[in-house]
Amino acid sequence: MNESIFILKGNIVYSKNQTELAICKQGYLVSKNGKTEGVYQTLPFRLGGNPIHDYGDCLIIPGLVDLHVHAPQYSFRGLGMDLELLEWLEVNTFPEEAKFESLDYAERAYRIFADNLRKSATTRACIFGTVHRPATLLLMDLMEKTGLDTFVGKVNMDRNAPEYLREETEESAEETLEWIKDVLHRKYQNTRPILTPRFTPSCTDELMEELKKLQIRFSLPVQSHLSENQGEIQWVSELCPWAEFYGEAYDRFGLFGADCPTIMAHCVYSGSREIARMKENGVFIAHCPESNMNVSSGIAPVRRFLQEGVRVGIGSDVAGGSTENLFRAMAHAVQASKLRWRIQDQSLQPLSAEEVFYLATKGGGAFFGKVGSFEKGYDFDAVVLDDSRLAHPQPLDIRSRLERMIYLGDEREVRAKYVKGQSIRLS
Amino acid sequence: MNESIFILKGNIVYSKNQTELAICKQGYLVSKNGKTEGVYQTLPFRLGGNPIHDYGDCLIIPGLVDLHVHAPQYSFRGLGMDLELLEWLEVNTFPEEAKFESLDYAERAYRIFADNLRKSATTRACIFGTVHRPATLLLMDLMEKTGLDTFVGKVNMDRNAPEYLREETEESAEETLEWIKDVLHRKYQNTRPILTPRFTPSCTDELMEELKKLQIRFSLPVQSHLSENQGEIQWVSELCPWAEFYGEAYDRFGLFGADCPTIMAHCVYSGSREIARMKENGVFIAHCPESNMNVSSGIAPVRRFLQEGVRVGIGSDVAGGSTENLFRAMAHAVQASKLRWRIQDQSLQPLSAEEVFYLATKGGGAFFGKVGSFEKGYDFDAVVLDDSRLAHPQPLDIRSRLERMIYLGDEREVRAKYVKGQSIRLS
Q1: pLDDT at B84
Q2: CB B404 to CB A79 under 8 A?
Q3: What is the four-CA torsion angle of A376, A377, A382, A388, rounded to 10 degrees?
Q4: B-chain residue closest to A293, CA distance
Q5: A294, exposed or middle or buried, with CB in 10 Å at 0-12, 13-18, 19+?
Q6: How many Cα atoms are found within 13 Å in the side-chain-facing hemisphere of B96?
Q7: Helix H segments across A187-271?
Q8: What is the pLDDT of residue B2?
Q9: Separation in Å, CA of B385 to nearest CA in chain A
Q10: Which helix (H) or strand (E) holds A14?
């Protein structure tokens, strides 16, 4: 690659650390060969002559990272919100996911998902598909075309799923292998496979063992669900009586972070040992606050995860969550943390705007490498926000404008978006 | 008025009762002299010849009713969300409200509020202004121009407010009298005054007595706050040691529904006696779920209010709430009720989509009279929603499309709006 430098001018905001913002008003953000070269209040002389995109009074933030989203569920976002997790899967989710056996249906559905994710402030995502190999490949083709950087998983389920959706153990393993081979042949630039056992109730021990073989053979990361709902946890304790806690049902098979990057969604009810194991193994928790409200799961103790040094990011969890808009997920994270503090446990302080912004950028971004910050050497993922729709009579500082975006922003504010230095088409 | 009849065609949805929707797919909604004449699957022969507005596949719902919103706080919506109520008032609210002494500032700020409320799905609102008479009149002028039907109140505060905002008792009463006279002179069609003692901590007993005199003299309704926050309740018990519960601090002065229509916002911590008194007095509770999250107040027991037959509506409570969008308030109401059920009290079932839709239409609408329904004789307040932005690959029934609006809808879906049979300009 030839050396490629360009510069964005605007009000640059990113996380200095977990609790503080770095703000450079009317500053220069320099991209060099797809990486962030630096943030400057005054453009260094040596960088003169490179193209500058002046975004005026816009905000420029790192791209948002969605650590947990189900692409096939996008079609019923905001629907069927009157059930708890296990019933919700049975009534809403499985019948819809079954439709993705049809590539025609999958294409219509996934195009909507891919288009809307492309237009959002999200630059990175970890995505669940369905059990279907062809539809999952189609989803990956579509995601690749968006220019976003994603992990996509073919789901595995060989038990406790309706017959029309359940795989045989061997079939599940073989299809996963074929899917991985297909993916490797396609030589995507931005789209990577991730092993996706749906959750313990859906996967036999034998299937977990097969998936571990594939994990080792192809050095794949893993995503799944953990300790979302009390009925689910009880069920897992019956299915895996040997597990001291739910997380062990993954860890026993080497699918819990110890030797492969792993995301576990929810962790609403993770206890001390599970949290300690996640920390030890470097598991990423995908906190999905809206989903945890909608499916009546509860509120995850994010403050505790942060205090104990567990890695945490934010997930939209569509369609447990209703929207791919991660600004809304950040607001829900703050709101849920306040209710948890008020109603459940006053020892855990609510989350601040700074903290949820950190989670949605650098926190989750770490799963992708050096992602989610404008520190030197980070992948150049940037979102330019024109917040002029949100009219106001008084002057507002940059920090306030960012907080307001968390509560009120959506894709209308996204004026430009870059992933690894490449501009993303938004129209 | 000459007889004026027109007809809207589309997918008509309104509340049959608290828990069920009435749905008329591709039906006719007839407006006659500003009232709903009827909903018809087939247009009666006698109505032929009247103008029909065919809204194709749009949804047509009763206008939404915002029972509690602070117009001057609209400028800081989505900001300063890291404080509890009493501190939040001191740090965010009072300094901003003080600016409304300037009519110039008030005009800039209130134009934004009025414009955005006009474009939203809201047709009715009960609005707090500030203590300032001229600015409150200006707000009423602007609201009148929108065509929406609203109650607007000049706020009263003669204690426990910063000096720059606190009125003297006599001054507060006199300014309120002058304000009412000014309002009467202006002969608004859609804009009415409502007495607005901010809350007990802001109003001395003497001021309450003066307000009661005005209430009787002009037959005015009342709006205020009640049992939002535990610190506030404790404070009220110290200020009014004679009150057995917070609500008595209003009821003693005849400002609690017994002989005047009254809205009390929040009621997060209302106990049995307070609830019983509200029921007895016909007080309307404005449930403001997002505000109750953002200011860390808690979650009001709406299911209990409904079970006990207390009147309830929905409030955005901007800027405790971040948005005037009542769809979002409905979603927050469902979400909050689920968390309350899960974490706090499993005896109170979560609210359904049908129930929060009822609250946001007919529930709150009752404060305005026969409002919030398409039953015969109700004021013709209708909102036409084009939800085609929310793309989906599968067919969706009307009920599902309404639920989806609750989670995902905003002013972009509002294609037309009518208040008392008059079309509202949306551009």
Answers
A1: 85
A2: yes
A3: 0
A4: B335
A5: buried
A6: 25
A7: 205-218, 230-239, 248-251
A8: 54
A9: 16
A10: strand A5-15
Over range A250-263, report the average pLDDT. Answer: 97
* Mean pLDDT of all residues belonging to chain B: 97
Provide the phi-psi class of B345: left if phi over 0, else alpha when psi is between -120 and 50, else beta. Answer: beta
- What is the rounded distance in angstroms from the CA atom of residue A82 to the CA atom of residue A88? 8
DSSP assignment letter at B246: T
Three-state secondary-structure class, residue B14: strand
Task: Give per-residue pLDDT as tens, B346-368.
Answer: 999 999 999 999 999 999 999 99
Helix axes B169-186, B205-218, angle to 10 degrees: 20
Distance CA A101, CA A99 (A): 5
Contact B341 A404 (CB under 8 A): no
Residue B400: HSE in the Cβ half-sphere, 13 Å Cα cutoff: 12
Q: How far apart are CA B366 and CA B238, in angstroms?
A: 34
pLDDT value at position A3?
Answer: 76
Distance in angstroms (rounded) separating the CA atoms of residues A341 and A189: 43
Q: Write down the pLDDT at residue A1.
A: 46
Query: What does the pLDDT average to over B254-280?
Result: 97
Give the span between the Cα atoms of A158 and A180, in whole angstroms: 18
Kindly state the percentage of chain B with pLDDT values over 90: 97
Q: How close is the nearest chain A Cα to the Cα of B397, in Å? A: 11
Q: Which residues of chain A make contact with B79, given a CB cutoff of 8 A?
A: 396, 400, 403-404
Instruction: Determine contact, residues B414/B331, Cβ cutoff 8 Å.
Output: no
> Could you tell me how far CA A49 lies from the centroid of its own chain?
37
What pLDDT is stored for residue B43 in this prediction? 96
Residue A221 has pLDDT above 70, yes or no: yes
Inter-chain CB proximity B408 and A96 less than 8 Å: no
What are the DSSP E strand ranges found in A16-63? 21-32, 35-40, 52-62
pLDDT at A84: 85
Run of H or E including B417: strand B414-419
The answer to whether A77 contacts B408, with C-beta atoms less than 8 Å apart, is yes
Is the pLDDT at B82 greater than 90? The verdict is no
Which residues are A415's β-sheet partners? none
Secondary element (H or E) of residue B383? strand B382-385
Closest chain B residue by Cα to residue A112: B391
**Beta-strand pair A122-128/A149-153:** parallel
Minimum distance, in Å, between the CA of residue A74 and any CA atom of chain B = 8
Q: How many CB atoms lie within 10 A of CB B184?
A: 11
Q: Smallest CA–CA separation between B414 and chain A, in Å?
A: 16
pLDDT average, residue stretch B271-285: 98
Mean pLDDT for chain A overall: 97
Using a CB-CB cut-off of 8 Å, the residues of chain B touching A341 are 296
State both tokens at A52: 């500058």
User: Six-digit token pair at A326?
Assistant: 């991660």
End-to-end CA distance of chain A: 28
Contacts of A108 in chain B (CB under 8 A): 393
Question: Which residues of chain A does B350 touch, with a Cβ-Cβ cutoff of 8 Å?
Answer: 82, 296
Nearest to A80 by CA among A65, A90, A72, A71: A90
**Nearest chain B CA: its distance from A212 CA (Å):** 35
CB pairs below 8 Å between A and B: how many?
Answer: 136
Question: Which residue reads 């933030």 in tokens?
Answer: A61
- Give the pLDDT confidence score for residue B1 in this predicted structure: 46
Residues A32-61 have pLDDT tens digits of: 999 999 999 999 999 999 999 999 999 999
Quote the tokens at residue B417. Answer: 């709006």
Which residues in chain A are contacts of B393 at CB distance < 8 A? 75, 105, 108-109, 112
Residue A135 with chain B: CB contacts under 8 Å:
none
Give residue-wise pLDDT tens across range A198-216.
999 999 999 999 999 999 9
pLDDT at site A285:
98
Per-residue burial over A385-407, b if 16 or more Cβ lie within 10 Å, else e, is: bbbeebebbeebebebbbbbbbb
